[in-house]
Design a protein that fits this description.
207 residues, six-stranded mixed beta sheet, alpha/beta
């Protein structure tokens, strides 16, 4: 759950994108808890603004080494902190995140393949265990998808490196969010950074 008292959108600085909001919070409240993930299976996970920024930028550098500008990146994560890090890594790398695949979908590959084809995703980002399960399930029928698989829990050795700051604004495409596809093929909704900030501001006012 997000800490609504800390993730408010009021700021004296430019906030056209979620990265603008994160940069502002890293400056003003770096050690504040941004998100707490409560799970029945494991201990609660927490992440601060500073931790999110460091982890996301490091992963963004890894992504930029294999992905082209504005390439689609399919996020393959269970709910939790790692999904948020992967999403912000895409923002930092100026790559388009694709969301809407449940981690249990390894047992239903038709949806996975449909989303990959429709979104034209070239990269799949997630934990190594989950990527391995999907790669095994897809073989050999998924070889035509020509995907690059990036395990976010396998950090490259060497000094911490960051990509250059992306040139983004409120109109920049941030996310392709896919519908459930329960009655027809999944369909993607194009969400800009402005769309996401507007939605968050509405939630903040309502709650």
């Amino acid at each position: 759950m997000f800490d609504r008292d800390e993730w408010h959108l009021e700021s004296r600085t430019r906030t056209e994108t979620l990265l603008d909001v994160l940069r502002d919070r890293v400056q003003s409240m770096p050690e504040k808890i941004l998100y707490t993930c409560i799970s029945r299976e494991a201990a609660a996970e927490q992440i601060t603004f500073s931790d999110l920024d460091v982890r996301a930028r490091r992963l963004a550098y890894q992504l930029r080494s294999i992905a082209k500008g504005e390439e689609r990146v399919l996020l393959l994560y269970p709910d939790g902190v790692d999904y948020i890090v992967g999403l912000f890594a895409c923002f930092h790398a100026r790559l388009i995140a694709v969301s809407g695949i449940r981690s249990q979908a390894v047992h239903s590959l038709e949806r996975f393949c449909a989303v990959v084809r429709d979104s034209q995703a070239g990269v799949v980002l997630g934990p190594s265990r989950l990527l391995g399960e999907f790669q095994t399930a897809l073989h050999p029928g998924g070889s035509h998808l020509r995907l690059k698989w990036v395990a976010s829990d396998r950090r490259p050795e060497g000094p911490l490196q960051y990509p250059d700051q992306p040139n983004l604004d409120g109109q920049s495409l941030a996310l392709l969010q896919y519908t459930s596809g329960s009655t027809q093929s999944p369909r993607g909704v194009m969400l800009s950074h402005g769309n996401l900030l507007h939605n968050l501001a509405g939630q903040f006012r309502a709650f």
